[in-house]
Amino acid sequence: MGELESALDALGALAADDLFEHSDADLLDRTRALLRARNMLDAELARTVRRAELAQAPERDGLKNMKSWLRTHGRLAGSAVTALVTAGRVQEALPAVAAACAAGQVTADQVELLAKTCTPQALEQAAAAGVDLAAIEAALVAVAVSAPHRDLQKAVAAYLAALDPDGPEPDPTEGRSLKLVQHPDGSWTGRFDLDAVGGEKVATALEAIAAKGRCAGDTRTRDQRLGDALVQLADNALAAGDLPVLRTVKPHVGVLIGVEDLVDPTEGPGAATTSLGAAISAARVRMLACDGSVTRIVIGPDSVPLDLGRTQRVVPPHLRRAVDARDQCCVFTGCEAPAWWCDVHHVLHWVDGGETCLENSALLCERHHTKVHHGFTIERDDGRWRTYRPDGTEIVLYEPLLT
What we know:
This protein is of the alpha+beta class. It has 3 domains: 24-167, no CATH class; 170-246, no CATH class; 314-395, no CATH class. Helix content is 47%, strand content 13%. The strands form 6 sheets. Strands 3-4-5 form a 3-stranded antiparallel sheet. A 3-stranded antiparallel sheet has the order 12-13-14, with no helix packed on it. A two-stranded antiparallel sheet has the order 1-2. The longest helix has 31 residues, at 24-54.
């Protein structure tokens, strides 16, 4: 362990370097060296994990395998554990890859990609076809060490396709997956894997919504626009009412909030709870309630519902049609989001005594609905909508010409 401790000490000493004293060239050279060092560390870690796996070393700590040990003792996420264990097995199966890893020339992401070439199915197909695995491995390593990651993806895909050129067309649904994870604060992250055609469909739909949702002064990044587009796609599907019924109830976003918190404009975050357990603010609930259904529930002292009132639709269908006909799109200055993307916003909120009527209603897309509930204001004057910033200045698309 002496050499390993020396290496760790050397890495720790790097944190004392003043990076502001380095030139651009020095910083890039340092980055290259650190990338190589990380590749070497990843390779050695994977090799050690594989040896520990074969030796059943986790039994020493009362655990049955390295995956459970890495999740608990290593504090790694499930995806990182799987990638690390797989990398160790790949290095054992592909000696040329292992050598390139030890030299720091191949990244952990590349190893994860190369793992597809040594699955039991791929090895069986290669043996049946008389493939020279050493030659294929050498060719793939050459691409890995000298070309962008995208080229290695293409090379691996071409090799796997060539193993079974006459086989049946794969079922695209077998390779599709979507993983969603809700975090303690209620936010979500996820990952999806789609076939070429399925991915094209999703990308086309999101790009169309993202492009349509852009307006003057939009400073969102591409990732943010696509994230908003995904939510808008779900909004459209939920609003259409065509989704499958779940246990006699149409799918919907449910929120539970006390009536005192709902009417209190000063109430902060965490005042309400969604159906899936996320805590959200009262302001967010008021926004959702603008164009939703409200049900009165009387809760007893033991948190048991005592009375369930009749559900009231805040914006009835006939009013929605009238607002759509008048506004036609989001009324926030500069936005052209179509009516079917929009909620009906109460200019004076209904919990504050605002009437559910045409004069007190306006179409707002989700993004601008949020802004209006966080400082921006809209007013209808002389038959047209005007938008004002939180500081009271009006947003105008075209400044008047000076005369």
